[in-house]
Amino acid sequence: MTPSEASAYHASKERKDANVFSFTHLAIVFVIALLVFGPEKLPEVAKLVGKALGDFRRASTDFRQVIEKEFAEIERQTREKEEQARRLALEASNPTPAQAEGASPASEPLPATPPAGSVPSTTAHDSGAAALQTPATPADGHPA
Is the residue at 89 inside a domain? Predict the structure, then answer.
């Protein structure tokens, strides 16, 4: 093993060890906490820290569940869209018998005017607009 490989190995081992607290580390932290807070306050502080950690764990679990539900919903919607696109592509590639004969109801043009008698006429004399018109007066100002 070369010196550079050895130093890389020790550096990676030290990083792993730094992430894991040993009993010695925990004992030192306990002693410092005992000196800072005193024996009377230490149980209260430990209770508060435990409660805060529990609340944090609960909140992070709830957050993770919400995120997982949202991702599952997005995935479900994506699958539905893909399935719908597949069905549309399949329908487009396999025409129905009516479409194969050219008698598709959607492809027939609509008539420009409706059939006679199907829609009532809305001309000016039928709608009462004629009653609103005033008779014309001659240029001299007297009615004829």
Answer: yes
The answer to whether residue 133 is domain-embedded is no
Please return the burial class of 66, using the count of CB atoms within 10 Å of its CB with bins 0-12, 13-18 and 19+: exposed
Q: How many domains does the chain have?
A: 1
The pLDDT tens digits of the residues spanning 78-113 come to 999 999 999 999 988 886 665 555 555 555 556 566
What is the sign of the dihedral through the CA atoms of 24, 27, 33 and 34?
negative
Residues 6+ away with beta carbon under 8 Å from 29: 21
The one-character DSSP state at 144 is -
Q: Is residue 11 part of a domain?
A: no
Which residues contact residue 98 at a Cβ distance below 8 angstroms, ignoring those fewer than 6 apart? 104, 105
Q: pTM of this prediction?
A: 0.40
41-69 residue pLDDT tens:
888 988 998 999 999 999 999 999 999 99
Residue tagged 């004829």 (tokens): 144
Give yes or no for a contact between 45 and 33, defined as CB atoms under 8 angstroms apart. yes
Residue 82 belongs to a domain: yes
